[in-house]
Amino acid sequence: MSVSASESPVPARPLPAAADVVVIGGGVAGVSTAYYLARAGVSVVLCEKGRVAGEQSSRNWGWVRQQGRDVRELPLMIESLRCWHDLARQVDEDIGFTVGGVTYLSETEADLARHEAWLASVKEFQLDSRMLSPAEVDAMLGRTDRRFLGALHTPSDARAEPAKAVPAIARAAERLGAVVLERTAVRTVDREGGRIAGVVTEHGRIACRSVVLAGGVWSRPFLENIGLSLPQLAVKSSVLRTSPAPKLCESTFGGVSASIRPRQDGGYTVARSGASRFDIIPAAFTHFRAFTPVLRREWRKIKLRFGRPFFDALGQRSWREDQMSPFEAIRVWDPEPDHAVLDDVMRAARSLYPQLADAQPVERWAGMIDVTPDEIPALGPIDAIPGLFIATGLSGHGFGIGPGLGYAMAQMVRGEPTFIDLSMLRYARFQEPGGIRSAAEA
Length: 442
Ligand SMILES: Cc1cc2nc3c(=O)[nH]c(=O)nc-3n(C[C@H](O)[C@H](O)[C@H](O)COP(=O)(O)OP(=O)(O)OC[C@H]3O[C@@H](n4cnc5c(N)ncnc54)[C@H](O)[C@@H]3O)c2cc1C
Fold this sequence. Notes:
alpha/beta; FAD/NAD(P)-binding domain; nine-stranded mixed sheet; six-stranded mixed sheet; 12 helices; binds flavin-adenine dinucleotide; FAD/NAD-bd_sf; D-amino-acid oxidase; FAD-dep_OxRdtase
């Protein structure tokens, strides 16, 4: 694991004394929330321990998809796609947003059945998703061998360039009046009479009435330090990008052994879904029962090991506000990619996608994905501490849903009804008997 540790203790800008709202975390969840709050005229400060989009939000594949979503988060994703269309115009920068469609290849009868079942389950949402015939798939991929039994395809799905999009939304939020502070870790919240009165950062206090915790994998330790539980674990996922290669069509493609997205630079982002490494940390034991169904389903693809995070920051459970927090110890989590997995993924990609035959891998990286036991986000107020909200647990598909989530969080924090019902995603479900259900049980 390589970690870019405390780069500088100096904040990029002076700390404001007060704001209406402090957002913790400069990933897509936090940045989108700050953007929509600022657009509504709310005074908002966003604190990011490292750099905006340094973690998951720049390391992801860049898929903005409705296809394949859990029906409990699909309504939010449908709205989020609308937000992406608006943002592509509003941020006034190129974010690589392209409606090119998403296609999941059906390599086996089991894939075909799973894709058809998903299509049947989302009929009421009237998406433009449909099954493609083997001949249609071949035409898209430039093949003639009928290797695939079909595919699930959603033409209205999209993609964006993660490393450009989230920083661009942050800059747009700043133009609307938000204050974005990098190299500013929030150690804890400050309370008066039980409710939020501010945050304590490594550089001092900011008074505020509301806090939105959008800390990605760091949300669980942040909450544990103030006596709250969040069943959320971190799994490592590795990715590579290739040199420029021919583009046969605009769609991104998902296959069991390799998935690809065309990039603006002419290459492809290549990875394998679910090929993750899960480091066993103390929290894994605390929440083991809640996660058993996910681990049982994914155990073939997930490698378990007692990794360094067991002993380092993600394992630390308590600190005081005048002590250095784990968030300062690891400014930007930059884990070492799994090279053996990526070598295998590249071989598979060349076999599945003819356009990659001569493409060379030119960069590899990894990211730590935050996962909840039911693999859907946790959004909304935490009743035990009035004024505290969370927007976390995006479970490996939060890049696409981030802008819609930010829109909804801004409504919640302002005390307005949200544009869609988000009760399925409430934090309280984790404490309710039977509150954690898989997509199949929902
Ligand atoms: C390899 C990979 C591929 C993926 N592919 C896709 C995809 O194609 N499509 C899709 O929709 N999703 C995808 N995802 C998931 C998506 O990237 C994440 O769900 C999303 O980016 C999470 O956003 P976030 O804002 O919640 O977290 P993050 O982006 O991780 O941001 C959290 C931020 O909070 C900061 N922070 C934490 N604690 C503190 C603190 N106390 N003080 C200050 N700052 C703090 C961190 O430094 C971090 O920058 C992928 C993820 C990975 C890793």
